[in-house]
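name: query_chain
kind: protein
chains: 1
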Amino acid sequence: MKPLLSPSRLAPGARVAVVAPSGPVPGERLQAGLDVLRGWDLDPVVAPHVLDRHAAFDYLAGTDADRAADLQAAWCDPSVDAVLCARGGYGAQRMADLLDWDAMRAAGPKVFVGFSDITALHEAFATRLGLVTLHGPMASGIDFVQNTRAQDHLRATLFAPETVRTIASEGAALVPGRARGVTLGGCLSLLAAELGTPHARPSARGGLLCLEDVREEPYRLDRYLTQLLRAGWLDGVRGVLLGSWRDCEPEDQVGAVRALLADRLGGLGVPVAGDFGFGHCDGALTLPFGTAAELDAGAGTLTLDEPALR
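structure:
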């Protein structure tokens, strides 16, 4: 796995488009997020259909065609320097095949930020555009608008990425050791759902795989990991970084998720680092995907070879 092309960092006054590729967006939280971005001296513009809600399926932010059109228009607009997702939820997979990837590639690189359901688009941006993307907080996420650490780390990544080249874990390693590779990953359930689709990578070979999820019972996490293992998708992975697993563990089964992850990932024979503070958690850190890095699971550090953005 080779490193991908890094977009340019943002500068004060940069224009950033906010889109909703997945679930419906709460209007009041969107406004709070826009206020944060304006406070960074950015110029946020909201895509036309961000506040839409699908007439038949209220878990979608408008129709697939409209969500895709918003993303493509924002990406292909030469005045836009970055595209930020408003939230996750569900729906990115439904609209990914409606995008004109040739036109988006011709538009050139720019910053793309999101997580959760946006994992499907991180995969597509890697395979179709060969571009580094940022797994980070979203514009209307409550974990963004109400958390200074999440805001500060995303802001540093966007404006001064050389200051956040080392990301530190707050937990103990499941399997200590060091490994080098290219970062990739996201929401575990989405990575499993992407298997066999047109935009998915054939495997995580050569990668430092970042995994997290939310509101999934241990047996479901077991099923996703087992699916990836049986499909050979984890063959050749260099190391694993674990993020948050919010609401994945029953109150009477403390330690169940960690035990499961150790069981399913320990046999890979690679370093597995825990509690890296990305994903569905308070103060979520921003991770670049597609960047060469070194993982020291014992020390709990991920050190990027180069800043996430140029």
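note: The mean pLDDT is 97.
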